[in-house]
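FIELD: query
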Amino acid sequence: MEEISIRIGDTGDSTSHVVNILNRIGLLTTRPNIFNGEVENAVRAFQQSRGLTVTGVVNAVSLRTLEEAQWKLGDRSLFVKTPPLMRGDDVATLQARLTDMGFDCGRVDGVFGPRCEKAIKEFQKSVGVTADGICGPRTIAAFMRLLRTVSGGAPAVLRESAAQKTRGPALANKVIVLDPSCGGSNKGISENGVEESEIVYDITRRLEGRLLALGVSVFLTRGSDGSPTEAERIALANQTHADLALSFHVDRYANEKANGVATYFYGTKNHGVHSVVGERFASLVQREICARTDLLNCRTHEKTWDLLRLTVAPTVRIDLGYLTNPGDAQRLARPDFRDVIAESVVIAIQRLYLASEDDAKTGTLRISDLRKAGIRS
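FIELD: result
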């Protein structure tokens, strides 16, 4: 992804573009020709509302999300185009309305793809509009007419939950993608004697061995020296038709006192959608790690990061402490501590698939218990 950084003091076309969008979506009422404190505060408010990392700096992800936010349903015709596909709040609104009406367009992710096109065609057939898969003026008008007369439950939520339950408790034959962070711009940089890419890769290898022993098909998004892009890692997870995907990271912060573990799942309050299975799995991972280690509980959070948003399988990102905190770094440097992390995640995965009556208290289940329970022969 192209490096972009629009920040305090910047001027020019890029700053004007950001200011114009912030005005259009109602977060700015003035049009300064410089990226000043008012613009920074508006960017922070936008990032907070969209589940992005709040920095006040417009990077590539924030810029793309701003550009998506400027579109309201009806501003343009929506259709499947040659990649990159159309993205925007208008697409997300369309997906949410289709879902409420019972048409399966998949996850509400704001990306107009083939599944969304198929759902549009089905809707168009049902209301007597030309079934061309293009959401133009006539299709939007049909939506507006039906909006007050059709109300749905949460079919996407029900579908995701049902799919997870029908997979059964056994881990054998399930497909899980493990994504060890490459370290990004911090690759090769050590903090307190520990490097992110090496630590998370070691943890995923320990986790891989335990999952393979339980009959799971495991895919790693990179090798020991690889640095695939985020898009490549998402594509791999989707190509494998994974049941789950886990992305492992460690954090950094200017203040060395920042410490603890946090987990993230896909969700956004803007369109009232989130991954039900992802949220439950994030909670299980967070609770198991905190019960088995002395890492501070920084809780679970919904985010709209692309890895969570565009990976089809329920996906969780785990930030395993802060390398800038001497205590967290010391823990992560210990092989026995990384073993505990790996076991915690395996147990969380198993608990995700257990029926409530077969579940165990957080922090008590062990891998050896899985055989005794008949989950592994």
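FIELD: remark
Confidence is low (pLDDT under 50) at residues 371-377.
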